[in-house]
Design brief:
The structure is a single chain. By secondary structure, the chain is an all-alpha fold. It starts with a helix and ends with a helix.
Length: 164
């Protein structure tokens, strides 16, 4: 397995884990279950660890992908910049979750506030997760690039116009 393959193996995890964590945290808040909220905190911590793995495999992927025809440095740099922001926010969410996990186990009065803060911050993380996933996909998937005028899309649009 090369660097690009490793990156593809791990790069979806930091995006998927916060989605699952949000669902679990909402469930924990609605059911008022500390065990479920702790599970959400653990998922957010796993997400931060997965972000470390994705970031550490990114350079190896870049070295391979930049040699492929049709891949421009602009798409790689854009993805790298959004990934750095996303990773930093993921690490912060992991830290908030560590604090929340500790507060939950110690039955601190501010535990519920940290749960809500983690949930709100997780939505911010998910926004940047979407940006990072999109910019990563644009490197090799021309069909998702903005301003894409592929012949297939133009043909479909022309057929729709004729039907109207």
């Amino acid at each position: 397995m090369n660097g690009a393959h490793w990156h593809l193996v791990v790069n979806h995890l930091p995006i998927i884990f916060p989605i699952v964590g949000v669902i679990v945290m909402i469930t924990g808040l609605v059911s008022k279950s500390e065990a479920v909220k702790r599970t959400a905190f653990m998922i957010f911590i796993l997400s931060a660890l997965a972000a470390i793995a994705a970031m550490s495999t990114g350079e190896g992927a870049e070295e391979i992908v930049e040699k492929i025809s049709g891949v421009t440095e602009n798409y790689i740099e854009n993805h790298e910049e959004t990934a750095e922001t996303f990773a930093l926010l993921s690490y912060i969410l992991g830290g908030i979750s560590l604090l929340g996990l500790w507060a939950s186990f110690k039955q601190k009065s501010f535990s519920s506030i940290i749960s809500i803060a983690a949930l709100v911050f997780a939505f911010v993380v998910l926004f940047f997760a979407k940006q990072t996933g999109t910019t990563g996909g644009e490197i090799r998937h021309t069909e998702i690039r903005s301003g894409n005028n592929s012949p297939a899309l133009e043909k479909n649009n022309a057929e729709k116009d004729e039907d109207d």
